[in-house]
From TrEMBL:
GO terms for biological process: acyl-CoA metabolic process. Gene3D superfamilies: Hotdog Thioesterase. Residues 150-174, 342-364 are annotated as: Disordered. It comes from the Bacteria. Residues 150-162 have a biased composition (Basic and acidic residues). InterPro entries: HOTDOG_ACOT, HotDog_dom_sf, Thioestr_dom. This is HotDog ACOT-type domain-containing protein.
Length: 364
C-alpha cells in the first residue's frame, strides 16, 4: 500500500468573511431580537468550515471519502460579538491521528486596530470510506507555532479520552461527591434549601428534519444540529435566569451517530449545575421512532451561560437542585465540568485563585 504524502497545516488553510458592517441584509439574517449575533447560526458556519478544511486536507472529494464530525471540543467566546462589525472564520488542521483530524478554528472581529480574536473552536473530523476508517495524510509541522499547535492538539486528545472516562455514566461519584449528593437530596426532600428543582428547568423541542438541511452525504448537516441544540439551551437559559443570557462556552459537543433526513428529533435540555452567576445546560438530541416510540441519542452537548443585567454585568442565579439519583449524577457531572474549566482558566491566567469567586467567568 502506498504511503500517504504528508501535508503542511497551511495546505488546508481556510477563510470566510461576513461583511456585517456593509451588508444590512446579511446582518439581518444573523441577529436576534436583542440585536446580538445568533451564535447558533455561527456554529453552523464553524462546522461547515471544519468540513471544508478536512476535505481539503484529505483530498476527500477526489478519494470519494465521507468526512464526519465526531465531536466539537470546547468553544470559548473571548468577548461579546458586535453585529455591526465584519467577522471572519479562519481554520486549518492542527493535529492528526490515523483517520481523525483536529481542525482548529478562530473567529475574528474587525476593529479599528485590525482583526481581533473573539472565539476559538476545535472540531474532531473523521475520514471514512465504505463504512470503514480511512487513513488521513500525516501532518508535517515546522516552526515554533506549528509545533505548539500540534502539541496542544495532542494534549486535547488525551483530555477528551480522560473526560469520556470521567463521564457520570462511566465513572461513579467519589466518596466526597456521594456525600455531597446525599446531603443535597436530603435537603431537597426536606425543602430546607432554596433554589430551583432541576426538573423544572427541563424544556423540549421536537423538530422534523427536512431535506433542505442535508449535507453532501444526504444526512442532516451536523451544524444544523448544533444550531438547534444551542437555541434549545439559550431558551432554557433565558427562562431559568429570567435575564438576558450571555453565552460563554460550548464545553463539549459529541456526535454519536448521523441523523437521517425525515427523522423526528427531540432536543431535551435542563440546567445541571450553577455557580454564582454562571450555569451549565445539558442538551440531548434523540431520534424518535414514531412507529414504536423508541428513542436513540444522537448528540450530547453542554453549554455555559452567564446571567446578565441590562448593562451586561453578571448577576446571581438561583441554585439548581437535583431531586433524584439520576438528576444527582447530572449535577455531579456538571460540577466536574465546572471545576475543570475553572482550573484551566486559573492555570492559563497564572494567578492565585480568588477564593471568593465561584464563577468561571469572573476574572476572564
Amino acid at each position: 500500500m502506498n504511503e500517504v504524502a504528508a501535508k503542511r497545516p497551511g495546505d488546508s488553510r481556510f477563510e470566510k468573511r461576513f461583511l456585517f458592517s456593509s451588508d444590512p441584509a446579511l446582518r439581518e439574517r444573523f441577529i436576534n431580537f436583542f440585536g446580538d449575533l445568533r451564535f447558533g447560526i455561527l456554529l453552523e458556519e464553524m462546522d461547515s468550515a471544519a468540513g471544508v478544511v478536512a476535505y481539503d486536507h484529505t483530498d476527500g472529494f477526489d478519494k470519494d471519502l465521507t468526512i464526519v464530525t465526531a465531536a466539537c471540543d470546547r468553544i470559548e467566546l473571548l468577548c461579546p460579538l458586535q453585529s455591526d462589525r465584519d467577522l471572519r472564520i479562519l481554520g486549518q488542521v492542527n493535529y492528526v491521528g490515523r483517520s481523525s483530524m483536529e481542525v482548529g478554528l478562530q473567529m475574528e472581529s474587525k476593529t479599528q486596530r485590525g482583526w481581533e480574536a473573539v472565539a476559538n473552536a476545535f472540531f474532531i473530523m473523521v475520514a471514512r470510506r465504505e463504512e470503514g476508517a480511512f487513513p488521513v495524510p500525516p501532518l508535517r509541522v515546522e516552526g515554533e507555532q506549528e509545533m505548539r499547535s500540534w502539541d496542544e492538539g495532542r494534549v486535547r486528545q488525551g483530555e477528551r479520552r480522560s473526560q469520556a472516562k470521567s463521564h457520570y455514566l462511566n465513572k461513579p461519584p467519589s466518596a466526597e461527591e456521594s456525600a455531597l449528593l446525599h446531603s443535597l437530596l436530603r435537603e431537597t426532600e426536606q425543602q430546607s434549601q432554596k433554589g430551583v428543582l432541576m426538573k423544572d428547568t427541563h424544556r423540549q423541542a421536537t423538530i422534523l428534519m427536512h431535506p433542505q438541511n442535508r449535507n453532501i452525504h444526504n444526512k442532516v448537516f451536523g451544524g444544523y444540529i448544533m444550531r438547534l441544540s444551542f437555541e434549545t439551551a439559550w431558551s432554557i437559559a433565558h427562562i431559568f435566569s429570567r435575564r438576558r443570557p450571555l453565552f460563554l462556552a460550548v464545553d463539549q459537543f459529541d456526535f454519536l451517530k448521523p441523523v437521517e433526513i425525515g427523522s423526528i428529533v427531540s432536543f431535551d435540555g435542563m440546567v445541571t449545575f450553577t455557580g454564582k452567576t454562571s450555569y451549565i445546560i445539558e442538551v440531548k438530541a434523540e431520534v424518535i421512532n414514531p412507529r414504536n416510540g423508541t428513542r436513540e441519542i444522537t448528540n450530547i452537548s453542554y453549554f455555559t451561560f452567564v446571567a446578565a443585567d441590562a448593562a451586561g454585568q453578571p448577576r446571581p442565579v438561583p441554585a439548581v437542585l437535583p431531586r433524584s439519583y439520576d438528576e444527582g449524577l447530572k449535577f455531579i457531572d456538571g460540577r466536574r465540568r465546572y471545576h475543570m474549566v475553572k482550573a484551566k482558566r486559573e492555570t492559563a491566567s497564572d494567578t492565585t485563585p480568588d477564593e471568593t469567586s465561584d464563577t468561571p467567568e469572573e476574572g476572564a
